[in-house]
Write a structure and sequence with these properties.
Blueprint (H helix, E strand, L loop, with lengths): L1 H25 L4 E7 L6 H14 L4 E5 L7 H4 L8 E3 L2 E3 L1 E2 L5 E4 L15 H14 L7 E5 L6 H9 L5 E6 L3 H16 L4 E12 L6 E2 L6 H9 L3 E8 L12 H4 L4 H18 L1
Parallel strand pairs: 1-7, 1-8, 2-6, 2-7, 8-9, 9-11
Antiparallel strand pairs: 3-4, 5-6, 9-10
């Protein structure tokens, strides 16, 4: 009994120390935004990467935390896959891209790209808190957190652990199933008193690589209808544009590779809206 009480006390003390470290570390970052989705496969990480790249292009000192522990794809998309982490007296040093975007992901710590993360909830939440509290993000203007899909342990840890979180951006597709799960994300945010900055409808149209015409093969307008129903802002639609997508998954920040694409133009419009929100 005495041993159990001692362990409980030690656990509480460790959590308090982590809370202090997170608060101190996050205080150096002006704005923090979490990107969420109700389900997987909606292009949430692609949107996260392009949002951070767009803000970086506008002169913001940016970073991105890949909190999707079971599918840590952000390093691949930003062209820094396989890089090694380092540390100094300040803490764990994030990897820095050619565009000067700071990146932290569990992918940098895995022995190989095929290594699965077979962890239970407490270990996953512990890893995310370590990333928030002990990575040397330094003085950033903006940190984007790419959450895993759903409303489970990892997204909850992010939303509850980051003090003064500016809000969340929710990514969906026109699919009725994806739209239904958006409502759960909005309800989660509202229950935690966290603002919803807006909803993005991804894969809303397909740009024909030959004629350039936009066709709404998966439907359209569902994201805006959900936004109206849930009384949250709608940030816009993003199309599938095969003519502007790189040949591989590397360097998927299309905004910096193809500024003339419709996708890039709409990302910039969304970033303008998000910028207007955070400046308030």
């Amino acid at each position: 009994m005495q041993s159990d009480k001692k362990k409980e006390t030690e656990h509480k003390m460790a959590m308090m120390e982590e809370d202090i470290a997170i608060t101190k570390n996050m205080a150096k970052i002006k704005h923090k935004i979490a990107v969420m989705s109700g389900k997987g496969g909606v292009g949430k990480s692609t949107v996260s990467v392009n949002l951070v790249a767009a803000f970086n292009q506008k002169g913001y000192h940016t970073g991105i935390l890949d909190a999707d522990l079971h599918g840590p794809n952000v390093p691949l998309m930003l062209g820094v896959k396989g890089r090694q982490l380092d540390a100094d007296e300040q803490g764990i040093l994030p990897v820095v891209t050619e565009d000067n975007i700071k990146v932290m992901s569990l992918a940098f710590l895995l022995p190989s790209k095929d290594s699965p993360v077979i962890w239970r909830g407490p270990k996953k939440t512990g890893a995310i808190r370590q990333f928030l509290g002990y990575v040397a993000w330094d003085e950033l203007d903006l940190l984007i957190v790419d959450n895993p899909p759903g409303t489970g342990d990892e997204p909850l840890t992010v939303l509850q652990s980051i003090p003064f979180l500016d809000g969340i951006v929710i990514v969906t597709t026109p699919s009725p199933v994806a739209l239904e799960d958006v409502e759960k994300c909005v309800a989660m945010a509202k229950s935690l008193n966290i603002p919803v900055i807006g909803i993005i409808e991804n894969m809303a149209g397909f740009i024909c690589p030959k004629c350039g015409e936009e066709s709404f093969i998966f439907g359209s307008g569902g994201g805006q209808r959900i936004a109206v129903k849930m009384d949250v802002p709608f940030l816009g639609q993003l199309p599938i544009d095969l003519s502007k997508v790189p040949d591989s998954d590397e360097d998927m920040h299309i905004i910096t590779k193809n500024n003339d694409s419709l996708f890039s133009q709409r990302i910039m419009e969304m970033v303008d809206k998000i910028e207007e929100y955070i400046k308030k």
